[in-house]
Amino acid sequence: MPRGRSTFTKRQKSKRASRNNGQERAQDQRKDEKPGGVVLDEAEELRQMREHAAEQAALFGIGLRTMNPVL
Questions:
Q1: In Å, how far from its chain's centre is CA 59?
Q2: Would you give the DSSP letter of residue 57?
Q3: pTM: predicted TM-score of the whole model, two decimal places
Q4: Residues 55, 61, 66, 70, CA torsion sign
Q5: Cα angle 13, 27, 39; round to 5
Q6: Residue 51 has what pLDDT?
Q7: pLDDT tens string 11-64
């Protein structure tokens, strides 16, 4: 009876290790590739969010009483 691991078990372990290593590399690469529009300043980010909200409100007519007046 052989001692130690069978070759099948060794191959499985090797395959699993290489797959995990590849996944870790891919995760590291995704972390390194941050989107270009990253804003580091909170005040600037808030300003951009308000600007975007105003654009959305204008687009969907939110806040305009001329379309559907409710008194």
A1: 27
A2: H
A3: 0.35
A4: negative
A5: 170
A6: 93
A7: 898 899 888 888 888 888 888 776 655 556 888 889 999 999 989 888 887 665
| Residue pair 33/39 in contact by the 8 Å Cβ criterion | no
16/27 Cα distance (integer angstroms): 16
Residue in this structure with the two tokens 């995990």, named with its chain if needed: 20
Distance of alpha carbon 71 from alpha carbon 69, whole angstroms: 6
Quick one: tokens of 67?
């379309």
Q: Which tokens sit at 33?
A: 């590739």
Which amino acid is present at 11? R
Query: What is the Cα–Cα distance from 50 to 63, expressed in whole angstroms?
Result: 15
Q: Which amino acid is at 1?
A: M
